[in-house]
Queue: 2 jobs
Job 1
Amino acid sequence: VQLQAYGGGLVQAGGSLRLSCAASGRTRSMYFMGWFRQAPEKEREFVAAITWTGVTYHAGSVKGRFTISRDNAKNTDLQMNSLKPEDTAVYYCAEKGGSGSVYRDYDHWGQGTQVTVSS
């Protein structure tokens, strides 16, 4: 699976951005799509995930502000509202087979897109 993430940018606090992840070459029918982020000098953290059936999961720090969605079997989006400076990070989309935890052990990763939120 090849993943291409795009949509990052610079936004003021309180603003919105929409990230998209385009997947190609997927052969498995059961999968999880996830978004992770990594801020400078911090470990990568889970942001949100969606299963092949459309069940969603969001980290507590973004719940109510971010929404993961899937428009078809190839594209997964992350709508980010009410952005805060602490949301600044490189955001990665990822994919794994549809078993185990949705929070870790992803085996395909996109290249990352920078999100910067100014105060």
Job 2
Amino acid sequence: QVQLVESGGGLVQAGGSLRLSCAASGRTFGTSQMAWFRQAPGKEREFVAAIRWSEETTTYADSVKGRFTISRDYAKVTVYLQMNSLKPEDTAVYYCYALRSGYNYWGQGTQVTVSP
């Protein structure tokens, strides 16, 4: 089992920045990928960014390219999402995700609200 705990959400004005963190614990050895997803009210959960744990290769949704950066701390087993130039449409609950040995793990989510 892998436990994921997100932090760093909050309220910010448009154009501002936030940094989300996701700390993984438990049986984290063998985790191949971690990612961030988000879900806005009335919408389906959507992919935001992902990072391959060993290679550190990253992928992003088109809507956040150039504004968001995903990174990881190997020793702390923590993944980060630096969000800059935030827009009201970025408002959502952000979920951390981990893939380990074919199993999917999710965090509880953290609210990000961007005011106009």
